[in-house]
Amino acid sequence: MLKKAAILGTGYYVPEKVLTNFDLEKIMDTNDEWITTRSGIKERHLSEKDQPTSDLAFRAGEKAIVSAGLKNADIDFVIICTVTGDYTWPATGNVVVERLGINGVPSMDLSAACSGFIYGLTVARAFVETGLYKNILLIGAEEFTKIVDWTDRSTCVLFGDGAGAVVIGQSRGDGGEILSTYLASDGSKVKYLLQPGGGVVHPINQETIDKKLQFAQMNGKEVFKNAVTKMPEALEKAIKLAGINIDDLDYFIFHQANKRIIDAIAERFKVPEEKLIVNIQRYANTSAATIPIALAEAVEQGKIKKGHLIGFSALGAGFTWGGAVVRM
Ligand code: UT7
């Protein structure tokens, strides 16, 4: 009989360096009041120049493996959810496998931007439930601060660096079971959020660099509009698939892109503030890493406990979006 897949362990890592809104005021035409009221962000963590995404991923991943009561050698698949990998190719997963000392283990990157972790959760769940792999290290890791245009105040102030990780394995019967996952995408919205340069449409050359196509570009209003409709939709689908009601959920972990998006979804479902896991004020938007960082941090703080029902939802570039329900 197929066993249910479960989250066996969690971990996160953010780089030491902190950049506050007040620091930003000194280097560009912005202010703490605008950033706080429009997004809820107060500060973000910045990776060092010589600290690649694989380093954040490795550190978060190691913690998740320990938290699962496993050794690096027990991991038989590594998935890194990222759109800011060390290289365009090969996959950052390859670098992480080397850092973990488990060369030979298959690895890959998964590109679904801010929904990456929910996509990864779905893939890892399927691998485990079909018996293909036993212990999958699933990491959301991003360094957006290295691909934003630091002269574009409408995007650069919103992002931070970090990594969150989980180990997905067969349920041990003591919690962590993934009850449902739901995914969707819409390619007509590619233009609203993307890094246009560096692919084959706009290869790196002097012309594309002069046009600043190597940087992340975002139409904030379009992303916002879609987030506040698609994220609740995805959560509803995941809840239905899990066979539960919204009131059964103990905590909600939404992608941390904007506190106003989180509040709009909470308002729609009449979710009280104390059921929301929110850390955007300290980390900003770390894309595929926001959900696993929030999860691991809430577990570490003792807020999320065994048996709690958690609802997840995210929307990201593509657009991609999705939802999930887990019983911790
Ligand atoms: O993870 C998925 C990716 N991202 C998202 O989900 C983000 C979704 N979108 C958003 O969160 C919001 O749309 C933003 C936070 C990006 C923007 O909020 P907004 O309320 O839509 O602001 P806006 O773009 O309408 O900008 C309003 C004003 C403009 O000035 P004018 O033209 O009204 O005079 C901007 O120039 O705010 C100005 N502005 C700034 N002012 C100070 C834009 N960025 C800044 C800034 N500091 N950093």
Q: Which helices and strands appear, and what pairs or packs with what?
A:
Blueprint: E1 5-13, E2 17-20, H1 21-27, H2 32-39, E3 43-46, H3 53-67, E4 77-81, H4 92-99, E5 107-110, H5 116-129, E6 135-143, H6 153-156, E7 161-170, E8 177-185, E9 193-194, H7 206-210, E10 217-218, H8 220-242, E11 251-254, H9 259-269, H10 280-283, H11 290-300, E12 309-316, E13 320-327
Parallel strand pairs: 4-5, 4-6, 11-12
Antiparallel strand pairs: 1-7, 2-3, 6-7, 8-13, 9-10, 12-13
This protein binds oxa(dethia)-CoA.
Residues 30, 34-35, 38-39, 114, 153-154, 157, 193, 218, 220-221, 223-224, 227, 257-258, 285, 316 line the site of oxa(dethia)-CoA.
What does this structure look like?
The structure is a single chain. The chain has 328 residues and is of the alpha/beta class. The chain folds into 2 domains: 5-174, Peroxisomal Thiolase, Chain A, domain 1 (3-Layer(aba) Sandwich); 178-327, Peroxisomal Thiolase, Chain A, domain 1, CATH 3.40.47.10. The chain is built from 11 helices and 13 strands. The chain has helices at residues 21-27, 32-39, 53-67, 92-99, 116-129, 153-156, 206-210, 220-242, 259-269, 280-283, 290-300, and strands at residues 5-13, 17-20, 43-46, 77-81, 107-110, 135-143, 161-170, 177-185, 193-194, 217-218, 251-254, 309-316, 320-327. The structure holds oxa(dethia)-CoA. Oxa(dethia)-CoA binds at residues 30, 34-35, 38-39, 114, 153-154, 157, 193, 218, 220-221, 223-224, 227, 257-258, 285, 316.
